[in-house]
Amino acid sequence: MEEKLFEQVYKIEKNKLLRYYERIKNQFTHSEPIQIVAKFLVNQAIG
Asked: What is the pTM of this model?
């Protein structure tokens, strides 16, 4: 599946997700990258 088609099918706002990830990364500067990604994914599942 092409990236653009995937984004359209699932209504993904790529820029919005990237900004949100950057905010989480800045809040948890002392965390390992895997912990930051886990926090991001958990928040996406809840939100």
From this structure: 0.60
